[in-house]
Design a protein that fits this description.
45% of the residues lie in helices and 13% in strands. It has 203 residues and is an alpha/beta fold. A 3-stranded parallel beta sheet has the order 4-3-7, covered by helices on one side. It has a two-stranded antiparallel sheet with strand order 1-2. Strands 5-6 form a two-stranded antiparallel ribbon. Strand 1 and strand 2 form a beta hairpin.
Length: 203
């Protein structure tokens, strides 16, 4: 298998990002963790990794577009380590930001959901903490165009009304909304508008 990879690389030389993705490790990515908070009226968003870093971009791209379980595991471990350091971890419920039905069907998976599953496994195995994953509290009712080509105002307009909550959130639970990339915060801000998240504990 290794010989085949070498031969394939000689015929189709991999791009720099692909080469970085192959060298991904938890240790390398963990050195880049720099939690940064963005406070909104409804919730506080914490960004763990700087997306401008080429290694972070490689990890996100591989997890998102190439369904790399290796990248998803590493990102899940990064999330788990951060969550293990928070108070009241037993009250945490992870909510992977859902894809629209159209996007999920086309892609075949939700990379954020898989990152959450890996985080859940690491929290239990490495830290003895059991957290739940809630996939039914939030649903995406609007299939939005990709955000990459839009400015901040366009992103907010694009995401407006994209989500719906299936029920009122519990006030005894710490909901952790998980997404892979934060640019303008439009996705999480719209989720914050769905319900009275300001009344819900968060970390």
């Amino acid at each position: 298998m290794q010989l085949f990879s070498v031969l394939l690389d000689s015929v189709f030389p991999p791009k720099d990002r692909a080469l970085r993705a192959r060298s991904l490790s938890y240790e390398a990515l963990h050195t880049l963790v720099t939690p940064k908070e963005y406070v909104d009226e409804h919730l506080t968003c914490t960004s763990l990794l700087p997306y401008k870093d080429p290694l972070v971009q490689a990890a996100i791209t591989e997890a998102k577009y190439n369904d790399s379980h290796h990248a998803q595991r590493i990102l899940g471990s990064i999330l788990a380590t951060y969550l293990s350091q928070q108070p009241d971890t037993t009250k945490i419920v992870l909510i992977p930001v859902p894809l629209s039905a159209v996007r999920l069907h086309a892609r075949g998976y939700n990379q954020v959901d898989r990152i959450c599953v890996h985080a859940q496994q690491v929290l239990k195995k490495e830290f003895g903490v059991c957290v739940a994953i809630e996939r039914n509290l939030l649903c995406r009712i609007k299939d939005t165009p990709p955000q990459t080509s839009l400015g901040a105002a366009g992103r907010r307009s694009n995401m407006e009304g994209a989500f719906l909550a299936s029920r009122s959130p519990s006030t005894h639970t710490i909901y952790v909304l998980v997404d892979d990339v934060r640019t303008s915060g439009a996705t999480l801000y719209d989720i914050g508008d769905v319900a009275e998240w300001s009344k819900v504990p968060h970390c």
